[in-house]
Amino acid sequence: MAGRNPAYRMTTRPQHLFSVDVEDYFQVSAFEAIAPIATWDRFPTRVDTNTRRLLDLLAKHDARATFFTLGWVAERFPELVRDIARAGHEVASHSFWHRRVTTLTPEAFREDLRRSKAVLEAVTGEAITGYRAPSFSIVPGVEWAWEILVEEGFTYDSSAFPIVRPGYGNPGAPRDPYVIPTPSGPLHQYPLATASFGSMRLPGAGGGYLRMLPPALLHRAVREAAARGAPAMCYIHPWEIDPEQPRLAAGWLTRVRHYSGLATALPRLDALLASAAFTSVRDYRTSHAVAA
Ligand SMILES: [Zn+2]
Question: What is the DSSP code (8-state) at residue 193?
Fold first, then answer.
């Protein structure tokens, strides 16, 4: 493995981006009707153990990642968040309460953003400058969120998923990192990776697509990005590598999406991380001299 050779490591520039959305299995948007926020404390939590398994996997490949972390998780598991930072990964915000931006007023969005940033900064002692919206929910219609992110001290967002999909698809977004000008200053955008088939784009970034679609799609997205000289942004949730998690009584489509392929996610991630070099957004920006 070239990545384990220190001399090689000093001269290579990691090309791709890996990210983890740090939330527990009962906090996903698809469960919000059967597991509302008021009930979260009743569920047996598994986010600490599952996130540590991902830390081990990343260490095995000498890879770094950005951990978009819920403020709720950081409040309850500060030692986990400190261990993420100590391992050389970037801690960023995934909001405090995991409410989709499309369900919030600008004022409520700002308040949630401030609360998540404050707890993550208190726990890590580091500035938090990256954001990913719950369920990629900065979509056409809520562009006001970009300016608020800049005003609250964020330099980048990673919520654009340039695919056609009800709920969070943003098919008009560019596939590669770009800069969004706002009246308060620029915001860098790191879209989720896609694979192209003619004029069609398929999600190749990870998550449920990594568990349920052929792995070739993910590797294709990474190869295509490399051919464009761009980083592929991949992602996973800690609960996606946990076949033992308690089952919630959701509708059949949600159950298919949430519970399929849980046992395959870890070996597929292992293969992905072996196939290319991955790093965090923070380290990518430093090594590629991206201005803040
Ligand atoms: Zn999430």
Answer: P
DSSP state of 206: B
In angstroms, what is the span from residue 10 Cα to ligand 1's centroid?
A: 33
Provide the residue type at 202 as one letter. L
Beta strands 200-203 and 194-197 are antiparallel
Distance 32 CA to ligand 1 centre (A): 12
CA 215 to ligand 1 centroid distance, Å: 22
Q: Which two three-digit tokens encode residue 246?
A: 């308690």
The partner residues of 180 in beta bridges, in order of sequence, read: 187
179 Cα: distance to centroid of ligand 1 (angstroms): 23
Domains recognised in the chain with CATH numbers: 14-287 (3.20.20.370)
Ligand 1 center from residue 150 Cα (angstroms): 21
The residue behind tokens 């998780």 is 73
> In the chain, what is the greatest distance between 2 CA atoms, to the nearest angstrom?
52
pLDDT tens-place string over residues 113-169: 999 999 999 999 999 999 999 999 999 999 999 999 999 999 999 999 988 887 778
CA of 232 to the centre of ligand 1 (A): 19
pLDDT digits (tens, 9 = 90+) for 84-97: 999 999 999 999 99
Range with the poorest average pLDDT among 9-23, 28-42, 44-58, 62-76: 9-23
Backbone dihedral angles phi then psi of residue 20, each to the nearest 5 degrees? -125, 130
| pLDDT higher than 60, residue 260 | yes
Compute, in angstroms, the gap from residue 197 CA to the centroid of ligand 1.
27
Q: Which residues of 111-136 are buried (b: 16+ CB within 10 A; e: fewer)?
A: ebbebbbebbbebbeeebbbbbbbbb
The residue count for the chain: 292
